[in-house]
């Protein structure tokens, strides 16, 4: 089998997340600068190897003050830990188009295993003859597992920032 390399199409990809704020609303954000690649045996994704890296300082939640706080030592400490990285350990088919992606997520100087749900959109040619594939990735992590512990208690009970982070990722790759 020939190894096939797939490169991210950043114009058609999003790395998003949501976190509870004040226990009752979600704040959404994303990383604006990232890179990802996949290696497969031919066009077979059963043994796919995934790699991802994102620039922490590209975080955007639509609020400059909040983004600055997220980059500070209270949260990501972007000056000391400028990247988020993921490297897959397995990609297992569950049903047609449904997979589990397992790997090692490195964030804030800590590496931990994660398992994510993937909807695999198959392969298609674009109008310019490029073969593309699309994946929708979702999952949850607890930010405290990576040492992102900052919080503030609320007068009414509970905390300002939720511990659970929901990942919502849309990826489009181009066959090289």
UniProtKB/TrEMBL annotation:
<dbReference type="InterPro" id="IPR036761">
    <property type="entry name" value="TTHA0802/YceI-like_sf"/>
</dbReference>
<dbReference type="Pfam" id="PF04264">
    <property type="entry name" value="YceI"/>
</dbReference>
<feature type="domain" description="Lipid/polyisoprenoid-binding YceI-like">
    <location>
        <begin position="5"/>
        <end position="174"/>
    </location>
</feature>
<protein>
    <submittedName>
        <fullName>YceI family protein</fullName>
    </submittedName>
</protein>
<dbReference type="InterPro" id="IPR007372">
    <property type="entry name" value="Lipid/polyisoprenoid-bd_YceI"/>
</dbReference>
